[in-house]
Amino acid sequence: MKELVSRCPIEEVMQLLGGRWPSLLIYYLSDGTKRFSDLQRDNPTISHKMLTLELRKLEDAGIVRRTDFDGYPRRVEYGLTEDGERLVPLIDALGDWWGSMVAAPADATVVAAD
Amino acid sequence: MKELVSRCPIEEVMQLLGGRWPSLLIYYLSDGTKRFSDLQRDNPTISHKMLTLELRKLEDAGIVRRTDFDGYPRRVEYGLTEDGERLVPLIDALGDWWGSMVAAPADATVVAAD
DNA sequence: CTGTATCCATCCCGATACTG
DNA sequence: CAGTATCGGGATGGATACAG
Description:
Two copies of one chain form a homodimer. Chain A has helices spanning 9-17, 22-29, 36-42, 48-60, 82-103, and strands at 34-35, 64-69, 75-80. By secondary structure, chain A is α+β, with helices and mostly antiparallel strands. The first copy, chain A, has a single domain (9-93), classed as Arc Repressor Mutant, subunit A, CATH 1.10.10.10. Chain A has a three-stranded antiparallel sheet. Chains A and B meet through helix 1, helix 2 and helix 5 of A and helix 1, helix 2 and helix 5 of B. The structure holds a DNA duplex.
């Protein structure tokens, strides 16, 4: 079943950003334009293949802009679109939320188990 | 995890919320406390097994609180913790962002269907 | 009703090799 | 340098059966 018409936009956006890499790549790109090999250096553990696929996915979603200067050797640059930039603070907010979680463990939030 | 801890909290929080179901379950639970079978009805396409696993994951993360009234038949209720509640608007913001994306495509190519 | 365990198909992803 | 294609192992998740 490939047809998933999400009723909830949340479901869709999580499909896009949910994996391990998308948000990380966005994070690194928020720093400025980078080349393919720069991103490889930033993320030493991502495979060549996955970097390509993730970038393509983000590009298709309109989050990442790809610029191909085809000379030799080839040179391609990746950067965030405006939509991508707008996404950064939202992702950041999730990070802050997570930070507040680990700072104050869930134990303390349990209220009077009667 | 097997490897080093993520430098970026984003990476961690996405590992948690990234899949198809977590955010949806949180959405449904933001509505109020629900039983296992209620959630099954809300999400007709999730399998029994995955519902259990996802709920357990969210519970372990301190997002969901599980209350087991063990009578007969058994009855278990799920609800959001305070941390979970605080997460809702953040997820919502992502949904809004996504909504603004589809509303105004970055690339106006396909719009004109003459 | 809720939860656990098992089996098994599927898919994701890394490694590798090749192209321009 | 950047991208594509292919293969195979391992993780992921559905179906099912069973337990409390």
